[in-house]
Amino acid sequence: MATLVDPARAPMREPGAVAASDEQRVFVASQWQLMWWRFRKHKVAVVSALVVIGFYAVVLGADFLAYADPNASEAQRSLMPPQRVYLFDGWRFAPYVHGFKGVRDPQSFKRVYRPDPEQRVRIRFFAEGFEYRFFGLIPTTRHLIGVDPGADASKTIFLLGTDVQGRDLWSRLMYGTRISLTIGLFGVTVSLALGVVLGGLSGFYGGAADTIIQRVIEILRSIPTIPLWMGLAAAMPREWSILQVYFAITIIISLLGWTELARVVRGRFLSMREEDFVVSARLVGCSQMRTIFVHMVPSFMSHIIAATTLALPAMIISETALSFLGLGLRPPAISWGVLLQQAQNVQTVAISPWLMLPAVPVIVAVMAFNFLGDGLRDAADPYGR
């Protein structure tokens, strides 16, 4: 018959034994385990990681989250202000917004829109809308939110208002998030490959290869940014499609963004090429490429991940700034920078301040990537204090 042990009388583990057990766990843990344990202690970085995951969830489901065709314009609903969402109708959960009625301003003679409390537009979940392909594969017309099927044109929703051409800003922001974040992701991927390969060759071989690669890096870093972008924008043919401009911008940003990582990788290779494990790899007959990519690069992969995370916001800012200045993506393409082009006019912003709303995800995304990069950089040195 089993005997029950009183927890109060159960033998307690000595603090020294607990410390020894934790220390033993650290000694036998892999580099990735140590990095994960340290990263979890960085609360701001963990929250930032969740924010970044949320942004890329928007990238995957932009069509589902957008309730209106982002390119559908109508002059009658130009510059409509954002609608306030009411979650409860009495005690019942029934989200709705007030409809707008257009009136003529007696001073400016412009058409302005004011909420109509008598008109309630119900917000439906998983409502019917414009047709798209979910994940680019499954044709569907379901969206996260929408209005009743068959509702007239006056009964619609504009959560973030409309732009000058009457296009829904929320839907355009969802599509703009997809373009801006994927440009940053693809750009960092290309610059990561260039930085690791060229920086590794520079640090591993030295000599003439090191001299040539370092001089190229210095030349690229000495070129003024704005004149370079202006020249590149003028060189891109105007008849290029949106897809061609998209890939051109991505490649150009990547070709100029690999220099910082290449220098970091070069410094690491210079310090590691005489280490025992590298010499041993040479002695057992490993090729130089195998020594670089199988033995040397994985030893500081955590630092590369941290550097890549910190490079992503720079890529996003570059695309946004270029498109804002008219040197990057151009309409009808949709990105954060293209959406902010309409906010260049101070008078327009004063009258329609909601046109500045696309700046909010830019700020949040850049801060989230920076905090995430800081957390990964600290976690990449698990034995540090």
What does this protein structure show overall?
The chain is built from 15 helices and five strands. The chain is 55% helix and 13% strand. Residues 4-8 have low confidence and may be disordered. The two termini are 50 Å apart. It has helices at 15-28, 31-40, 43-60, 62-65, 169-205, 207-222, 225-235, 242-257, 259-272, 276-283, 288-296, 301-324, 336-340, 346-351, 359-379, and strands at 85-89, 92-104, 111-122, 124-134, 138-146. The longest helix has 37 residues, at 169-205. The chain is an alpha+beta fold and 385 residues long. The strands form two sheets. A three-stranded antiparallel sheet has the order 1-2-3, with no helix packed on it. A two-stranded antiparallel sheet has the order 4-5. The protein folds into two domains: 83-157, no CATH class; 171-379, MetI-like (MetI-like fold), CATH 1.10.3720.10. A hairpin with a 3-residue loop joins strand 4 (124-134) and strand 5 (138-146).
Q: Could you name the CATH homologous superfamily of the largest domain? A: MetI-like
Approximately how much beta-strand content do the residues carry? Answer: 5-15%
For the record, the CATH class of the largest domain is Mainly Alpha
Number of strands: 5
What would CATH call the architecture of the largest domain? Orthogonal Bundle
Strand line-up of the largest beta sheet? 1-2-3
What separation lies between the terminal Cα atoms?
50 Å
Largest β-sheet summary: 3 strands, antiparallel
Rg measurement, Å: 27 Å
Helical content class? 55-70%
